[in-house]
Amino acid sequence: xxxxxxxxxxxxxxxxxxLDVRGVQYSYPxxxxxxxxxxxxxxxxxxxxxxxxxxxxxxxLVLHLNGILAxxxxxxxxxxxxxxxxxxxxxxxxxxxxxxxxxxDDQLFLPTVAEDVAFGPANLGLRGAELAARVTDALDAVGxxxxxxxxxxxxxxxxxxxVAVATVLAMHPEILVLDEPSSNLDPAARRELAAILRGxxxxxxMVTHDLPYALELCDRxxxxxxxxxxxxxxxxxxxxxxxxxxxxxxxxPYGFQVQGRAPSYRIP
Amino acid sequence: xxxxxxxxxxxxxxxxxxLDVRGVQYSYPxxxxxxxxxxxxxxxxxxxxxxxxxxxxxxxLVLHLNGILAxxxxxxxxxxxxxxxxxxxxxxxxxxxxxxxxxxDDQLFLPTVAEDVAFGPANLGLRGAELAARVTDALDAVGxxxxxxxxxxxxxxxxxxxVAVATVLAMHPEILVLDEPSSNLDPAARRELAAILRGxxxxxxMVTHDLPYALELCDRxxxxxxxxxxxxxxxxxxxxxxxxxxxxxxxxPYGFQVQGRAPSYRIP
Amino acid sequence: MGAGHAHVLYRDRTSPVHRLPPExxxxxxxxxxIAVVATPREAFWAFxxxxxxxxxxxxVARVGxxxxxxxxxxxxPFVLFAFALxxxxxxxxxxxxxxxxxxxxxxxxxxxxxxxxxxxxxxxLLAGTTTMRDLLLxxxxxxxxxxxxxxxxFMLRYLDVLIGEARRMRVARISRGDDPRFLWQxxxxxxxxxxxxxxxxxxxxxxxxxxxxxxxxxRMPEAWRDAGAATARHWLVAATVPLAATGIAAxxxxxx
Amino acid sequence: METLAMHxxxxxxxxxxxxxxxxxxLVALALCVARGRQDLDDRLAPMAGLVAAFIFAVQMxxxxxxxxxxxxxxxxGALAAVLVGPWVGALCVAVVLIVQSLIxxxxxxxxxxxxxxxxxxxxxxxxxxxxxxxxxxxxxxxNGLAITxxxxxxxxxLVASQGFVLQYWLGGxxxxxxxxxxxxxxxxxVHLLIxxxxxxxxxxxxxxxxxxxxxxxxxxxxxxxxxAANPAPVGxxxx
Lengths: 268, 268, 256, 239
Ligand SMILES: Nc1ncnc2c1ncn2[C@@H]1O[C@H](COP(=O)(O)OP(=O)(O)OP(=O)(O)O)[C@@H](O)[C@H]1O
Ligand SMILES: Nc1ncnc2c1ncn2[C@@H]1O[C@H](COP(=O)(O)OP(=O)(O)OP(=O)(O)O)[C@@H](O)[C@H]1O
Ligand SMILES: [Mg+2]
Ligand SMILES: [Mg+2]
Fold this sequence. Notes:
The complex is a heterotetramer, with two copies of chain A, one copy of chain C and one copy of chain D.
Chain A: E1 17-27, E2 33-43, E3 47-51, H1 58-64, E4 75-78, E5 81-82, H2 87-96, E6 97-100, H3 113-123, H4 128-141, H5 157-169, E7 175-179, H6 187-199, E8 203-207, H7 211-217, E9 220-225, E10 228-234, H8 235-240, H9 242-247
Helix pairs in contact in A: 3-4, 3-5, 4-5
Chain C: H1 16-19, H2 22-38, H3 44-61, H4 65-71, H5 76-88, E1 93-96, E2 99-102, H6 103-129, H7 132-141, H8 146-174, H9 188-213, H10 222-226, H11 232-255
Antiparallel strand pairs in C: 1-2
Chain D: H1 2-6, H2 15-39, H3 44-60, E1 63-65, E2 67-72, H4 77-104, H5 112-137, H6 142-171, H7 179-212
Antiparallel strand pairs in D: 1-2
The complex binds adenosine-5'-triphosphate (2 copies) and magnesium ion (2 copies).
One magnesium ion is lined by residues 58-59, 102, 179 of chain A.
């Protein structure tokens, strides 16, 4: 298991909002508009699912949360710090926000699994036994300890996905953003990941197409479609509204049903 | 929808077995053993799911089915043709077997989506209106028609996955092999893909971690673990045997249950 | 991998030159350059004539002269060499502004400057009006050995793979708290390059195998190769420029 | 100045000599095509493309030597020879030169024969001969491979640069008289530095590949894997 006890003293976080995204618009260089004014707030410690059809802009939004993409309209604030072009600010934001990319090949680049997992914490200044412990714990958590000395690009897709998750867990970020973490994982690994995530004292934003998984992990869910947030509600309520889901190419697997509360959550 | 009516005259297929894999062993160049003697037969027209934990060797097995990987022990026979090093045989086998790779980035390489989808059928010798129709149909089937002139690397992950499926559908293969086709697809796309696959008159082998999806599409399922086939049975029976599933890191999502028949199918 | 569609030098517009099949453009460009190189260096007027031809083609191709001028800076090193020659050259010398210069060297410098520049301009006109993929198609139709066009095709594709993998590695690093100004600051330039090479290879290998799975056998599909191949009319149209150049070169040789 | 030497532009060497070397290059390339075809299997085809792309890309990053005016770049002959063998290797370098001359005007089209002779043929051949020799003499370790790649790079760059001097002596359009010796010296000096840079890049790249995928290194194909301590089998890396 990942223990967060050994974390460095928490920065003086005066802001109760972990993430605050306001009016973010973004077009890719080829002119394709991906985000058309996204507003979204995530209070500290909440676990939120980000749902939406293919091409909705979920990944584009995720890449804004630590300043990898920027340059459109709007602001992104992370625990009070606003993403800008300043190197020091960006470095601090990237320390706080850990992103697991949708494609594990975007995440892994060092010659061995262990080195890759150690890379983030080493950049945070950890050394020696502490660093080793971080690596061991993270690899343990995703069940990849026995592969620690292998080359990441020689792993199976699902194994790479697990290592990708470990690289971010090892950094003990305050805010954990996962883009489709469960895809290509075997069912047991999926459940194990859910248990780990549930046990972490972090703010969590998880992009997923697996609605039952979202329900299992997150109390609140958002739907992003065509670059805008179109719904924001407790996950159970949201998943109970089949009309809404169907409008956005979402649906529960056959035979799966949820009891919702009041359908009063749609965004105008 | 994909219509197979315009297919070139079917080759004289005397063999009722579409796929016949015997004693296949394989080690990667770095010495890692991935397959330890796989035996497997797929009768013509059947739809079979290939299940198993991460790193079991599923992708490695898939890459053997059209001779991309070879050189270990054992033989692979496709509709009576045995995979060997002969160029003509290989070309014919690759005409028959269409593989959708686990990572769409491995599959797409041309400047536009439409060209990429046209690549396979054009290699088969199609041209003009017939080629255009193949492309249009395949893109329609996966709902990517409006993106036909975009660059594949500028699509979202799920959109790339759909195009990857289209590139293979357009070839009208006799045997369709899909490595995790539903991962990263939105739920509606997942259902639409299932409907398409169910409608195709092909032999189908589908690798997946989504057990309900396997049940929905395939009558028979195999479990591959540590490079060996460890179970082969009707999907419903197999999924009903929770002990067996648990031994191989498989499990049904919470709340999902299947009625099985007799537990008499385990491989010795 | 959007390889080979366009490259930095391609000017995306429509013009009669853009529409010409690539093989005739390549042939015309090569023939023009050979005519230029064969011209005696003393025939100053002939080089003026070539320059006029280049300007005419640029106008028809709707390629701006300023673009041509900036892009031709690539030959700056040759220009430096050309300016060094009057000092290095042997034989008869003249004095100009107090500098003692070799006459042969002056001619040599001019020769390199004029022929080099015209050659670069001709290449730029080809590059500006032809996509990389068409260029390869043209080479293929000119019966360039298949193994060469195959290597060239992959070269273009893997340039994209290299760039793509370099981008991925950069994103992977900055989002985990590293702050590199260059990709290779991790363990020195070369180590980063080695890692990038291996990574690009393994990606490229998988892409190649996926192509092979879809029936690729070393050449792009025939349907694509044949579409828009040159007709006799195309050859005639494109031949005007090298023919004019050959005329100039012949005249220059005869007139001495 | 060496950029010039390495990518000879139109007008530096006279027509007859350029034509003679074009013929020579054509014959040599034809041989490479014939031999390369047998080599180019499913494993080598992507590698050949990547080697060409890598040389192409790295040639874009000229590294300055002494001053900005003098800059040099990777020639790639040694890298190509180690990874894809002499035949396909020469073709890779030739492809880079052809594409660069066609679309960048980098190296005159009329001088292509000279450029191909120097960099693709001479550079790769010298590198491969050295590699074949050194891999037999040196211990079969990572260090041995690194030294091999390094030495082969330095020497092949030097030889390629002297190819230009020879061509200039035969058909330089301007008679530099006694300065020819000076030219040879300058070329050698500058290219020693370039060769060292190229050697470092080649050695690290090759070692990285050999550690993870020894099966991809053509020069090691008929040898035992690194770091086996055994002597080379008969008929080792030379073929
Ligand atoms: N590099 C790019 N260049 C241009 N357009 C892009 C690029 N990446 C994504 N897009 C476009 O932007 C839109 C949003 O893409 P994004 O990747 O954010 O979608 P997504 O919600 O993550 O989808 P998925 O569920 O398929 O991962 C899509 O329409 C996509 O085609
Ligand atoms: N290129 C490679 N080099 C070395 N070993 C490899 C390579 N690719 C896969 N392996 C190893 O071979 C085994 C089988 O891998 P494979 O990709 O076939 O698994 P898989 O069943 O497809 O898993 P997943 O569900 O995660 O996709 C794994 O242990 C993996 O680490
Ligand atoms: Mg996405
Ligand atoms: Mg797999």
